[in-house]
């Protein structure tokens, strides 16, 4: 039985643990999810939830109409954001192997940034 439970952990067949949260550290159901969201005690990947704000999704004028943001402005905004976060992560955790910024409209993913650091610098979670 233990072998079977270990084989389905974090999969769609696992009725106790949330497979979405297990894979990406976010779940569309949030606190209302019927399954457990297990946070790792240490990880090579850091999840920074909802920190990137896409100007095209958030820029509105006073009358509620969307403001046009050019492709050049979008790219400049993204490049500045990426460089700032990348530099801060390198200073804090060492070599950054990979960094992904989500520009997804799903509430559980929008603006999430996932940073993979070198194996020698696994990040432990602090309680409190």
Automatic annotation (TrEMBL):
Keyword Iron-sulfur: no
Residues that span the membrane, as ranges: none
Record's keyword terms, sorted: Metal-binding, Repeat, Zinc, Zinc-finger
Annotated zinc fingers (C3H1-type), start-end: 12-40
UniProt-listed Gene3D superfamilies: 3.30.70.330
A molecular function (GO) term: RNA binding
UniProt protein name: Splicing factor U2AF 35 kDa subunit isoform X1
Nuclease in keyword set: no
One Gene Ontology term from the biological process aspect of the record: mRNA splicing, via spliceosome
Domain of life, source organism: Eukaryota
Domain C3H1-type as annotated: residue spans: 12-40
Assigned GO CC terms: U2AF complex
């Amino acid at each position: 039985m233990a072998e079977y439970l270990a084989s389905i952990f974090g999969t769609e067949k696992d009725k106790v643990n949330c497979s979405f949260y297990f894979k990406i550290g976010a779940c569309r159901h949030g606190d209302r999810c019927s399954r457990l969201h297990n946070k790792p005690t240490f990880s090579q990947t850091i999840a920074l939830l909802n920190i990137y704000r896409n100007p095209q999704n958030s820029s509105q004028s006073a009358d509620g109409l969307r403001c046009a943001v050019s492709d050049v402005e979008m790219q400049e905004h993204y490049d500045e954001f990426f460089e700032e976060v990348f530099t801060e992560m390198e200073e804090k955790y060492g070599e950054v192997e990979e960094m992904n910024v989500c520009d997804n409209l799903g509430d559980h993913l929008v603006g999430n940034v996932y940073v993979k650091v070198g194996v020698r610098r696994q990040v432990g979670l602090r309680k409190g």
